[in-house]
Fold these 3 entries.
Entry 1:
Amino acid sequence: MRQSQTKDLTSFFRNLVAHGNPHSYARVHSRLGRRTVQPTSKLDASLNVVETTLQLAKDVGEVASKVPYVEAVVSLLSQIITIRDEIHANKERCNEIIDLVQMKTTTILHSLDTVYRANGTAGFEDLKSDLIAYANFLHTVLQNELEPFKTQSRWISYINREKNAEDLQRLERELDEFKDRFFVRRQVAISMDARTAVTLLSRSTPPKKIVPQALPASPKLVIGRKPVVDSVVQVTLSSSESRVVVLGQGGMGKTTVATAILHDPRIAETYPRIYFVSAELSPTIELLETRVADALSIPQSERAADLVSQIVDYIRNNSHPVFLCIDNLETVWEVETEQPKVDRFLEILSGADSKLALLVTMRGTQAPKTSFPWSTTILSGLDTPDSTAVYEKLSGQPANPPAHELLDKLSGSPLAIKLFALMVSEGDKPSQLLSSWNERGAKALEIGGSHRLSSLEQSIRLSVFSPRIDDTARLVLGLIALMPDGLSTSQPWFAGFESVLPDRTLLQPALRTLRRTALIEEKGDPSRWQMLPPVRQFCLGLVDLTSPAVVSLIQLYIERVSDHRQWASSSSHTINVPEMANIRTLLLHGAKLQPLPSSFGQASAYYVHWALWQGVDESAILPSVLRLPISIIQQAIIHEELGVVHQRWDRLDSAEVSFTRALECYIEGKDTLGEAYIHWRYGDLHVRRGRSNAAEASFTRALACFDQAHDGSGEAYTHLSLGDLHLYRCQLDLAEKSLTRSLEIFAENEDRRGAASTLQSIGDLHVCRNQFDAAEATFADALGRFTEFHGRQGEATTLLRIGDLHLRRDRLDAAEASFTRALEIHVEIQSRLGEARVKQSMGELQMRRDQLNAAETTYASALDLYNHIQDPLGRASVQLSIGRLLLRRNLLDAADASLAHALLHFVEVQNQWSVALCTLIQGQVCLRRQNLDEAGAAFSRALTIWKQIDVSWGVADTHQALGDLHLHRDQLDEAEICLNIALNIYTTQIHYRIDEALTNRSLGELHFRRGHFEESELAYRRALELDIAASCRVGQGQSHRGLGGMFLKKGDLEASELSYSEGLRLFLEIGDYQATNCLADLGNVWALQGKIGDNEASDVERLRARWGAVSTS
């Protein structure tokens, strides 16, 4: 039976050669040669096929013509290569099959050709059955895997897409099994037999002449690798027994570095004999030894069975030192059966002592396992400037924005950058290649052919499908590819990742293997296992999203987000924040699964909420979730979160639409608790729009729903919101009632976070009542509670409140300490919104200290943060602060512009509180310009709004500004009425020293105008006391200047001079624009005293000189 099968197969191969490709490659050459003139759009692709096939014919044509079974393999491979252009359906999958078969079969054929060139046909008879089996396998691939797709429709291809994926995986397994069975074991046997017979063969056959091998050409472009080259050269020259290994991921430029070293003049001067051996086509140690012997020009007739010892003797007997470079050693070293032989080979080579300098390059990060130490260099990616330089040199054009973006994605891989640049030089646009990369990954970068140096995909494939990578390691690699930020080594994520594997004990060995093959690296603190983007893009194409491990990983992340959804929890921050990119990606993959993972809708909403608090708007993923088959309640949750995000980014109309839809879903789903939360959110929305009455009505409805649902927590939070609303309206008694009830419920429910949040608002209540000691104690209590349960966000917001209180109490150093600590926490928990708010308060502190330049810088930093997180309300609030700063500097045009931008947004979102404040400051700008009518109109609008929303301090500030306006108009009675209203509010309700001082100064001016000098002096001195207590130097300067004018009017020139001098000193210290006017006032006093002439009193420069002399003395 076996003889019959062999006969049938022999006949099959004879017919195949005769009909499919007679006379081996002669007709293939002729047939393909005629195809090169076809004038079609696929000409380039066809030429690539021709080039590949003709090169194969050139390389292995002789052995194919002498060994029939090899000829059959060659013929079948030729047909597989040339069918590429005829495929019309499932092209991507078929091309993968062709590339895979071509790569493995070509390597086998080159190895067989090497054996044939050394030993002729001896030994090939033993390979007959293996060659027949392999040819039969190729014939099956051609008929069953490729031929059907020459005519298959796209529809059938689509139906069979899952089967196609399974077939591809099966094919890869069969190729790997054949490689192990034939390519390794059989090839070793042939090489060993051939070597022992070489002497006998040489007696009857003239030996082939060994032509000394030339070195590879010196690389023309070595950018970013000179330090590495110099380092290896120095190591080589500093040691008489140099053993250097250059390691790194595929495509990192190891061969380029090696050839640059070979051509370095310092190496040539020390080593007259330099040899280069590529192990790329040497899958056995015997073939590698043969290639080394060929490189050293050891005659075949003189080669012994123990060739490696003969190589060592040859080197020792050479009169000159030898520099030997073995490139791509991983080709043979990665084969499990060959690894110990390679290590032994290197051990014996090292016995050449000082006669030999050895340089080896290998994929991965693991050096050969020898007893002697290696000097190891691991290549990493090029930095950005070097990546750009390589691209611009090879492409011949400067890098534009799309080019920079793609270069960033390539992570400094020299091969990837080279392919990208060469494609651009051929006419591809960087923007097109960037788009192709985003869609196809590594497949986008190729310059024709399937060699690792012409295709990024093939280069990466060699590493991913290395013999060292077993199924478990490849599974782990695929799972890590699903996580853009990599696998965290921190708990609970690492333990969770272990749990999704079929055998959790295999994770650590898999990670070691992947690290050793340079496919992943451990980076960061805490550390994470990550891969370079090109490798990740390639691996993503191999992941089966429906596999149990992937589904388990997605479910793991959904459960983690759901279990740790509380933003205020420190443990939740520690777990979720570092994983945000991974959570997002796995949720997007989870949306493709059928059925959907449980709790998918809620997890998506929780993720978006976490992103929101980090200052990132991820709401775009929620509408796609709504299109999935989720329950009505999950739909409600998604709509609710959409509303929260819209409200956060000031899309208030959209927020209202989303909340309305959420309410409808909750009502349809008969979820009273959900209804309650929507009414609560409506209330917050109305507060944002300055609709305090509507807000109160919504909070009241929410309370009723929470009571019906028996939800104490929701009731407590609604009372908290009501308390804040009453504080906003300065209805302090009502605020106290609501906040007290909130605190009681939180205490009953043992809700520490809610209780701490309520204490924050109670502290605000004490501040409004000017009960600063009580406020400080309450804030300290809240801070302690947040610290106790690690509520980092709560800690930061409480510290901000404490800082603002210190600022209010004129404890500027204590305020700075609180702000600094709050900022540190916000940075730690990656809350950019919190950072922006703290920096805005720090700017206010610097304004109080008259550090205007520092305040400008701080405000700019806060504005950048608000711009980065796209927070228009925060941006507008900083622009308002900047407007006040510019007003202080008397830069009125710039102040106007900044305030106008802020006011426009405040009006759009109907934020009445901010509209009133911005309008008030605009009126002050008009007053400074003496545009009294415009100022009066602005103050009237502001006052109307303050009264509508019942904000007493706003009423006081506006009456103070109206008093100044009446003073400018010399309407003293009206001015007195307005100023006394303001002063009464400041002294009985607000107790803010700076505003009280400002009002007293205005009253001092009023009494001065009336000639009531005693009352004027009392008012100015009261203002000065308040300014000193508040550490407000600009206010002190203004009070001294007012006193100087009053003393001048009374004729007390000495007292006037002293007051003006002190005011001038203060203005100069803080760089205030009022220094010039104060100096002119002082000049008038000096003129009246006869210290200077009248003409000098108007000469600013001479006054400055005199002031300098006086102040020095």
Note: DSSP finds 55 helices and eight strands in the chain.
Entry 2:
Amino acid sequence: SNQLPTCCSCIVTSSTTMRLNISLLLAAAASLPSSASARGPSSPTPLVSLASASKRAFITKQTSSTADDDVVSTTTAAASDATTLAATAEDLATLIPHGGNNIPESQPLSQEPQLDPVADAPLISDIEMLSSTLAAVVKKENPAVYELYTRFRKLGMDRAANPDDVESFNQMTKLAFDISPDDALGVMKTFSIALNLVNAAEVHHRMRLVRENDKEEMAEDSSNRVGPLPMIEDSIRGTMEILLKDDGVDPEALFQKLITQKCEIVLTAHPTEVNRKTILRKYRKISELLAYLERPDIHPFERAEALNEIRGIVAAIWGSDEIRRTKPTVQKEAAGGNAVIESVLWDAIPSYLRKLDAQCRVTLGRKLPVETAPIKFASWIGGDRDGNPNCTPEVTLEVVTHQRLRAAKLFLNELNVLYSELAISSRFSKELEDLAASVVESDDKIEKYRRVIGHLRKRLVRTVKECEAKLNHMDSSVHFTSAEHTRGALSGWEDVEPIVKAEELLSPLRVIYDSLVETGFELVADGHVSDIIRRVAVFGLTLVPLDIREESTRHTLALDAITRHLGIGSYKEWDENARLNWLQSEMNSRRPLFRIRDVVTNAMGLDLDIRKTLMVYKVAGELEPESLGAYVISQANTASDVLAVMLLQKQFGMTKENGKLMRVVPLFETLDDLTNSPEQLEALFGVNSYIGSINGKQEVMVGYSDSAKDAGRLAACWAQYTAQEAMSKVAHKHGIEITYFHGKGGTVGRGGNPALYRAILAHPPHTINGRFRVTEQGEMIRQNFGSSEIAQRSLDIYTAALLRESFVKQVEPKQEWRDEMQRVSEVSCAAYRHTVRDDPRFVPYFRQATPELELGRLNIGSRPAKRNPKGGVESLRAIPWTFAWAQTRMHLSAWLGVGAGLSSGTEEDKRVLREMYEEWPWFREIISLISMLVSKTDFSITKNYDELLVDPSLMSLGDEVRNKLVETRQAVIDVSGTQDIGGPHIQLMRASSTIRNPYVDSINVVQAELLRVLRSMPEDDSPDLTPELQKVKNTRIDALLLSIKGIAQGMKNSG
């Protein structure tokens, strides 16, 4: 989750605190000209002005000594009119220290402490150009909104320049109080677009920095053997250099580990992407155009056209409705996931694997096997039934069929290109000759590669036709007309069999590849043929295999209905031993429990929800095995929960023998579940029939977000650590290879970590072992896989981290550290639960102080925000729980309880904690992440929400929570030893937040006012809500939704 680097309002060196007037960086430079290509002399004030050709910035140093450090402050001389002076990046060079390592880590921009005055100057220029473009559009369309926007922005800049001055904040709240509904809507829209433009510029800048680093490396390396991947620590090239030269790893051992490691990224539909897909495409195009504008050979006319295209896109965004008016269906969510694969990953995967192959040849002298797939993808979209009544068995069938259809069409297009390329009429291997001879009907007599490829094309057409026919028989599905887009005659497709399994396509492609290599056409083999083989290895004939997820109680209720129907009692009321005995007996029995057609016709008289649960198995049993991945059981807490799914699979014909048995993955997500997980695995591995079905392999999912919501951040982290350690020991004892599936969100509160490389290295020792499965969701899919370059960079980080982890010397925590972590965890958990669970004021306070109740209007997901609509915080999903606190800049879900845990204990305890931070990567990473989130909190903002929205009887709780935040900030500072303190509002400041805060501050203030007014208006069904008042209310609701989107963009994460 990379964020924009810029200089902080407080930048700290070892002995000097340098206070920079943010107005220098974020001024509205109305009269200062920029480059002629970006903005004419009469253009309106840019909405962001970070750099200028002008150097009329007057910086006066005022030094005062304190007991600990010298404070250097800066002041500006600015005219009383609209002219505000802006500093260039070069002006700041003398104020901002910077440096680097020989093999630097590609630090996520959200972790950068300061602006690099040279490297980041192009980013600043891009932002100014985009901001000027938006300024011109807004001023032309609505001068009043433009005027209000600039007033809000200036107040935000003033506040950023001096966080201790409350006057600018007070003026901001007054301006929000006076704003009209229509103006509020326009201002919120402008803020939201401005922040998205900053993000678009940053996406391009991420890759710009990597390329610049490459250029420097190539200039220094005269051997011309530098390889295509960047020389940075979290790239495979940098990692190989470290492992080979610094760690002395044997090249052959490194190569073997690389080609056998497996990382699977699971795309989920968790509702955290606040932007519509059509808007996202526009911002992605802007990032691409920024890259295009940097081409050294670009013609002035081409530059002008590209700039005009950017202006047109910005104008189109301004004219678009950015709000989703209806909730997406599961099918639409799945289509969105497929779009990422088709538009980005389909080309990014073979491109990255070509580079990985080339890097292996340069660094190791070895060629990467063409079928090697160190990274694969899977999906939950269409199979995640946990708490989503809209994900029905019929929807699952439709989504899988769509994915097979899309895969067949994509491969058909690739084979069309390959057919035109391989017009080779001589020199074939014996295997290719035999394969071509097996094709009965073909017009290609001499060109035998074409003969084989033509047959495969016909089979893919048959596959397309069959998928379309299935979809056209589904009532809810979109109807299709056939569109093969083929080249050449493909008649006769009716006479061939469809391609069902990946091997049916991979096998002949392998023969073609080997034949080309054997007969001297290796360069041809390493081209399009290799790309297609790699796509088959990664995507198969299903695009992505679909996981199914269901809650354990659903299976309990289904089996209870079955046992009652059979007259043998109530499964639900049996204890664990009784359940295990019955499940084992039935798993070993040849007799079915019931006839499947009795479920289809509901002759058993089942409850509709129970029938729906069972029909999922019927659908799964009829699908091709490659279409499905894991069966994940949420809220799993006993061995019988796993065996229940195994028995139901058996009942519907899903067995190991026919290859349709899905691997069953228990999800341990609460503190108690994690604590008890080793015991449950021990019981599970004691069941012979189960052990005989899993081929010595077990996957376990670790829930990060729900465990943090249950017990608080520190307690959850320690429970996850110790649970994985203990489960690994149990698996090793029984000779089982265990793989952990990490269910992480984008935010720190939900287990996310923008520093992905370090995060993987910091996992508990001996728990990854070259096997890693992790979820990517919502806005994180866009940030990590939104463009081909960014996607390849993300793939490189995952591959490099997994390889490095296999060889890194693991830090085993001392017993003293374990004892201290256990103590801190217990104190932290108790403090967290005391506030969240035990204090009767908390739930009403949470509902009033945050926009939690209003989040449902965003329509960003197909499933409800709660598993149980009538429940409290415990039933609230982790995403809206985290999302709501992020909106108010409290981020409570990421830090509550941390301060109590870290600050408790004796001086000896604190010494041990400091030692843990210095020597234990896992602990240091947790503290660093918490400090990052704490740096995003804002006292005045959260207090303003309280004063406007919270009942007076509950406001004392808000004060208590903010006091706990102060405690947490100080505790993190004490443990880490940092002196990065910048006033009462912002501590542990990160550079990336500085540019966004003036924008997000203003949005927060307007949002709080909108919530106050909306909550005082009549309900929609009230007779007091007149048509005129309804119109005003609708306008305010739209403004509120845009404010939620804007804050999410400014914070760079939502759930």
Note: Residues 181-220 form the longest helix (40 residues).
Entry 3:
Amino acid sequence: MASPHSEYAPYTPVAGPSTRRVSDFERMNAMKLELHDEEYEDDGYEEEEEEDEDDVDRFVNLALLSHIAVKVRDQVPRGTHVKGGIPYQRAFTGRDIVNTIQRLVQRDLMMNLGITSSQDRQIAIQVARSLQSQLFFYEVEWGGHTLTDSVEDVYMFLDDEVEGMSDGAPREELPTSVVTVLTKCYSASCTDGETCFAYACPRKAGAALLRQQSLSSVAESSKPEWEQSMDPNLLQSLPESEVKRQGIIHKVISKEEQYVQDLDTVESLFIRGLRRHTPAVMTTDALQDFIEEVFGNILDVRECNRRLLEEMAIRKREQAPVVQWIGDIFLKAAQNFRKVYPVYVGHLPLAEKRVKEEQENNAEFRRFLEQCARHPDSRRLDLRHFITRPSEHLLRYPVLLDAILQETDRGNPDSDYLNQSIQAMRNLSSISQLWTFQNAMGRGNTGKLQWHDLVAPEVRETIQKKEAKRQAIIFEVIQTEMVYVKDLEMIFTLFVQPLQNANPPIIPRERMIQFIKDVFYNINDLYKHHRRMLDKLHKIQRDEHPNIRSLSEPIFDAALNWREAYMEYIPHYPIAAYRIEDEMATNPAFKSFVDQATRQPDARRLDIKAFVNRPIPRLLRYELLLKAILDETPADHEDHDSIPQILEIIKDLGKATEPGVSAAKQKVELWRYNAHLVFKPGEMVDMDLLDETRTLIHTGKLLRQPETGFEWSGWSELFVLLFDNYLVLTKPKEKDGVTKYHPIPLDLLSLVNFVDPPQQRGTGILRGLRHGTSDASNNTVNGDRGLENDSRVVYPCTIHHNGRLGGLYTLYAESAAARVEWLQKLQEATGLRAVVQESNKVFEIEPLSADTFLVPHITGNQAPSWSEDSQYTGKVTCSVPFSTADGRGLVAIGCAEGVWIGLRHDSRSLKRVLHLKHVTQCAMLEDFGIFLVLADKSLFAYHIEALVPSQPSNHMHTARTPQKLNGNKDVQFFSVGTLNGRTLVIYMKKKGLDSVFRVLEPVTGKIVEKQKTPGTFGRFGFGQHRSEWFRIYRQDFFLPSEAYDLIFLKARIAILCQKGFEIMDLSDFKSVTIPQRDDPRLQPLAKRCEACKPLGMFRTSENEFLLCYNEFGLYVDRHGDPSRSTGTIEWEGTAEKVAWHPPYILLFDSRFIEIRHIDTGRLVQIIPGNEIRCLWDGRGGGAPPVMTPGPDGWQDGTSQESRVHAAMRAEPMPGQNRARGSYQHVFELVPTIPLYLPGSLSSPGADTYFPPSSPPLSPTSWT
């Protein structure tokens, strides 16, 4: 409905004196400029076409009222205004003139008084009243009202009232006065940046504050009640209802004025007060966030109410003394309120909560509020009262308007406006309540409101019961989505941010980023999708409440977009849950943090695991709610087409995540086993369960007979785990919560018998379990009758572990089906393991000789010797590769009947070059052309040209006599290496129980000299005089212990002996024995070391070594102390020799070669065979020197040059005569070239955090 007439005529600016003629002040400026025209012309100065405004303003002194008057008359906007039903042209309101003055003096106020806000208008009001008092302008009704910053009164200039006034007739007299607050300092020395000595200098903050406080506004005379201000005769002529109506209208106006004043107080007292308070209540950034959170858009609310108050004042002025229409103003105001009030009222609970939290935690803020409460403008009301004023005032509008309506005649057109205004205000309150509900995000009492709580009873009565139920379910969809999104927000508020900001850190900083990634993963992506969908749902709810047609569109769109995020998050959840459980079990600080966060009100008593799990049940909840909506939807509704599509998308998402969830659960199960399977004290078996590719193939229960052999001691129940690399027999221990276990590598596992007849458990006799078969003939069950129902019947399964601690194991399944299943799974696992190992092997066999070296089957006490007619060579004992000066790549192989040399990888080229007996060791000094051979405990040196001449016609070296280096003493072994840049040969000979060592150094000059005439010959045909090719480097030294080997380190040597590893400095022969044995805590380890034979010592990093014994390995630091808490690394076999090819160590058992990574000790490959032995371990040959590892150990930088030779008994070929004997397969181990870095063969990737294994809590294994 249109308004009966406009509230007030619009402003229509007209051409006043300021637009028709030059202003008084401009004329005065022009007179001053004329005095200097000639001077400017002499300087060649040309006046611009338009005078710059700043040049005019520089002669204006706003401290003079006459100057302000000229400016005001020129700039104040004129228009047509109605007062008392009479239109006045070229008029203006009090607000117009105050606005004009405020614009003029704003710059001076900022410079003199530091007033920066345009809302501080008291000085402008005082200047306007001063102009009014001197009749510069007048009130059109000459009512004598004091000018106010409002639109109630209308004013005009005297000059504007006179029609046809001449353009050149200026006002004869201007108002005169001095505006003291705008004056400058009287001191000539007062300039910017300098401290002024004048006490009342306006630039001084103290003086400015005093002067500002002195500018208190003139108290407005209290306005009389409407009845008191009316003419008694007119009052008596009005009906009683109209008198009451007018009184209510004026009371509404009065309340609106007080309300706007309260909103002004919010800005002046609280918002500005917080910014100016000294000391600062909080940091600048925090203060800005606090103001936005608490006060929101309250200033926008104030502007709307100012416009409402202004329009009521205009209506009151236009229709004075009786206001005829008021409802149309409120109807228009309701439309404006709709943009700001719902936002503010909806945010109010959060604002109140924020104020409460700040009061509890910020003492300075509490002091600030106490000061504000004592301020006169606050009327002793607190901040909470002021921020709730808009919400309370909004609820009063329907009541006040209804009171006006009750006193309005039905024939009055205003009654229709009032009815519409009341309904609009009620709807606005309902929308505001809906905003409050939405902003609550499911928290507090407001967040628990239901659909019927937000719908008026009269509206509910118009909705059918089935539709009301449908709307309630739609409401529940939105409500539960709010709770879900809020929970996702709380994950960051309660957990992520506190963890990141904790000091000291709750999670170690080196694990912080990975832990947060593992636990919360991509939950931020889920939050973004659901926040976006919730915003769309809220908009639909605000636009269509209480009767929402459909939610299908935003949900359908979100379901299509969030698929990828859920496809990543759901399968990852088992890993996140495990990380949380593991951290809480091992980190008391984290557990305390989670308990404290759970007690927070916003947590709703949910712990971190429940929050992380929230996305999974949420998808299921969508299905239930959408199906419920579909059941209550009319048949012709479009939801019957869209909702089934949404349900299909969600169901398909659930099915698509199942494989990933299953894989993640298995991975977590592996991690749990890795944490709970414990070692024997001081031992470590790294089964690589944390490898990303590791799988658990089968688990189940198997039985074993009592170890004592007596039935009454009870059968043991084993929980058996079949991984893709190990078979683990475990025995759970309920008391300590850990599991004792015995792992069997699948590479060493053989399936012996799974077809033996079932047996019956009962009273029995002694039986064996290990290293033999069970004598259970008396308990063998004949026939199948009753087997299925007899719980005492068990089915034997026999396997063999081909390891040091292995043998035959007979375990029992409780049913035939279980035995068959175990057989199938074991066959599957061993077959898969063979394929994987073949694909991921780190070394492969490269033959050197397959049919050259033949060993006879020994039938008597004497083995046949080699001859020209016999092919028997005896046992191969050593080898060494080397290159000659002419570039030939050769290999020397020593055996019981001499030394063979030939081209590498060409077994047909192997020829016997030395006829020596019992060759046990050989080495090559390539830089000197010397070939060393230890045969029958004598050490000989040959010039390589004498053995394999580079040219057949060259006899210079072939005639040279080899030299014997050890004299008459038997040599047990020798070692070749480099120490301090010098090549040395050290050999050991026994003297009683002592080991005596001699250190030789080759003499380059003597080696290349022409051979002298040999002297006498001994029984070997070699010269008996001292060797000329070598000289003694140091005097002999001895060790009071049996020595097995000697290793060259960087600056020292390591002697492997019965005591362990003797580290010696050849410069002074001082030595130290490792590992250290002085610590009483290491006594068990010391006894173990004494009982085992040392085989090798290898550097793992700059400050760590791996000591290899025949049964285990031990990591030690540079001082010989154990460096790792994991204890020893147990070998699978009994090592007879150890070789070194960085970063792998190769352990030689007669049945297999065991290859492990030196950094982790992890088993990476097993090469099976028969009668395996190491021939060359990388020392004393042509292999490049081993580089020193970096601080982080070996980075899998495997050299592709072979460093290890070995031999094994070859299996007879089909049709080959077994009676002749068996050939020895001589081969070298060549590193493979991986297609990718074998992360699974070493340690887990650096981008994934794996929890540490549990400490050894169990005293011993069941084996």
Note: DSSP finds 34 helices and 42 strands in the chain.
